[in-house]
Amino acid sequence: MTSILGALGGALDSLDEDEPVRPRTTRDWVVDSLTFVLAIAFAVLVTAQEFYGWGADGIRRGPAWLLWVDLALSLVLCVGLWWRRRRPVSLALIGVLFGVFSAASGGATLIILFNLAVHRRFPVAAALTALNVAPTLIYAAVRPDPAVGYWATIAWTAVLASINLLWGSLIRSRRQLLRSLRDRAERAEAEQQLRVAQARQLERTRIAREMHDVLAHRISLLSLHAGALEIRPDAPAAEVAKAAGVIRASAHQALQDLREVIGVLREPTAAGDPERPQPTLADLTALVEESRAAGTRVTLELPDGAENPPDVVGRTAYRMVQEGLTNARKHAPGALVTVSVAGAPGAGLTIRVRNPGPLAVGAPVLPGAGTGLVGLTERATLAGGRLDHRREPGGGFTLEAWLPWPKT
After folding, report:
1. Which of the listed residues 102, 142, 217, 273 has the most CB atoms within 10 Å of its CB?
2. Pick from 113, 50, 110, 100: which is nearest to 73 by CA?
3. Sign (positive or negative) of CA dihedral 15, 18, 20, 22
4. 186 in a domain, yes or no?
5. Longest dimension (CA), the chain
6. Alpha-carbon span 11 to 120, nearest angstrom
């Protein structure tokens, strides 16, 4: 018996916890107070009607003690209305017991069943509503109403209970719809904020990549010439003036590149249009000559009469060579850098930048962000190619990449 009661209690608890109970608001207090007053007024009115024979036949329905018990139990059920949101299933089952002989508790029972239909699933509410209608079969026989009749009493009770159930279910469906729409709106807003945050992050990454690609080369030239002036403070005035001129020109060009990059990144471009500044493979010669003018020994191997690859491929190849020259100036000053580019439509484009170790041991190393190779790897992947970088025996370094070059 104990196990059966425990299982029944657990089942009731699971049904009563179908919907989480929120803290009672001011509106809830007003509604609860109103329903409590209405239920008590109904119980008192029905008891007085039956006690004093105010019905159509003027006959008291039952002994006085039964009417007083009916009123007392209905008041107990009215007090239970304060827990109708937390324990609606339990109160509905109590209403089934009272419905066998009690008429005064009918108002409180209807309120409980209505609350059950609003806050619980329809199968649960429909089953408990049917259970509360079933005692009418016994009540109509024990306390008959000659003015209405046995079957009419049962029919009116069933109709009233069905209307009550459908009304509560309609309100539940409407609340669920509003809650679903509200959740969708909140989720859409959160997704929009996430997309905005991702767009901002992508834009920041894009700016950082462009700044690194464009400015690292210029800044390394500035540092190289400034280091030469620092090492040879007694150099002839002509050499000092020449180095100062190169520094000034490199600084001016770095500022110009910075303005162009920031300006382009701020202005939206049409879909599919290349972004400026966008060097191509044809600009590699100027890039190498600029490095040679800064004192870097560079050899460039380009096939004669080579066909120009697509803009995306040429742009990516230029950035890779630029990063390779910048790294060579940083980590191997004075070493001979070999740049070779070869390829054809259908076979792809191969870029290789190689340099031995630094000639001067202990030479100052220029600081770096450590993200250049990461950015180049990402560029190669986005272009459909691959990139490999490795250290050679003796301290050398090789940067090698392959980019697809489709046939036109």
Report:
1. 102
2. 100
3. negative
4. no
5. 132
6. 14
SS3 143: coil
From the CB of residue 78, how many other CB atoms can be counted at a distance below 10 Å?
A: 23
User: Does 83 reside within a domain?
Assistant: yes
Domain that holds residue 117: 18-147
Burial 39-72 (b: 16+ CB within 10 A, else e): bbebbeebbeebbeeeeeeeeebeeeeebeebbe
Residue 293 is part of a domain; what is its CATH number? 3.30.565.10
pTM score, two decimals?
0.42
3-state secondary structure of 55: coil
In-domain check, residue 357: yes
Distance in angstroms (rounded) separating the CA atoms of residues 366 and 381? 28
In the structure encoding, which two tokens stand for residue 394, read together? 């003796």
For residues 29 and 9, what is the distance between their CA atoms, to the nearest angstrom? 28
First-to-last alpha carbon distance for the chain, in angstroms, is 86
- Give the number of C-alpha atoms closer than 13 A to the C-alpha of residue 290, restricted to the C-beta side: 19
Mean pLDDT, residues 58-62: 55
Q: How many domains is the chain partitioned into structurally?
A: 2
pLDDT of 276 > 70? The answer is no
Distance CA 215, CA 252 (A): 11
| Residue 297: HSE in the Cβ half-sphere, 13 Å Cα cutoff | 10
User: Residue 341 in contact with residue 395, Cβ under 8 Å?
Assistant: no
Q: Which of 147, 176, 199 is the last residue of a domain?
A: 147
What pLDDT digit, counting tens, does each position of 35-47 carry? 888 878 887 787 7
Report how far residue 87's alpha carbon sits from residue 90's, in angstroms, rounded to the nearest whole number: 5
The residue out of 95, 128, 147 marking a domain boundary is 147
